[in-house]
Design goal:
Largest sheet: 6 strands, parallel
Oligomer: single chain
């Protein structure tokens, strides 16, 4: 039985992008993985709704593992931008007590076996993508809540391994988001692979014609290598 990839598209917790949904599922299938796309709740829904949705999705996949011929021990969560925050939240916060109220949920049932974070929103601090946090928490969120959902503070030893990539020239979600997360992973000895590409705007997705939507700046063959590297990494993790 194959592994699976649960895909959480971005954009800013305001809507979910088709460019980071179906094309990613086709890539997952071509790489030998089953794919699931989650259009999680966005604004005006607030935290914890996206995390509740991701938890429920993981439980549904595992509940149907036999019927869908999927391996419940090989589920990666894959998120882009704000979807990267939702995926990172699931990978780090799967054990939060308020998630146990979800239908079909047992302890650990929502824990992904790997996390793929593409130009993720991570921090609510100085390098924040403020719009994502405003949509997730409301515009006047208190600093404790922002700190709580800054994922560099949520990293711990029992979370799954992580694949992380970003571009240095990303002007929407600064590269420091991935660097902060990588530092925390290092500190807690969580295995990870990270690729930082020098050039490329935010929201590259597959960085090819298929996801560029007639925007030539979203085609970048060098950045596009993330898919090959990610498949190699996932094949090893799930070997």
């Amino acid at each position: 039985s194959y592994g699976e990839i649960l895909i959480l598209p971005g954009v800013g917790y305001g809507f979910t992008s088709w460019r980071e949904a179906e094309p990613i599922a086709y890539w997952a299938n071509a790489s030998g993985y089953h794919a699931f796309i989650l259009h999680y709740s966005v604004a005006p829904n607030r935290h914890p709704q996206p995390l509740l949705d991701a938890t429920r999705a993981m439980c549904i996949i595992r509940d149907n593992a036999k019927k869908w011929k999927v391996d419940p021990s090989k589920i990666a969560v894959c998120g882009f931008s704000a979807g990267g925050h939702a995926a990172g939240a699931l990978a780090t916060m799967y054990d939060e007590p308020y998630l146990l109220d979800i239908q079909g949920m047992e302890k650990g049932k929502n824990r992904p076996n790997a996390a793929i974070l593409s130009y993720p929103v991570i921090t609510g601090g100085e390098k924040a993508h403020r719009g994502s946090f405003d949509n997730l928490l409301g515009e006047n969120a208190d600093s404790d809540m922002i700190r709580y959902l800054s994922l560099e503070n949520r990293v711990h030893e029992n979370m799954p391994p992580v694949f992380l990539w970003h571009t240095v020239s990303d002007s929407s979600v600064p590269v420091e988001n991935s660097l902060l997360f990588a530092n925390a992973l290092t500190k807690h000895k969580v295995p990870f692979e990270m690729h930082i590409y020098p050039e490329g705007p935010h929201g590259l997705s597959l960085a090819n014609r298929q996801t560029a939507e007639q925007n030539p700046s979203l085609i970048n063959p060098h950045v596009g290598t993330w898919t090959t590297l990610c498949k190699q990494w996932l094949d090893e993790i799930f070997a």
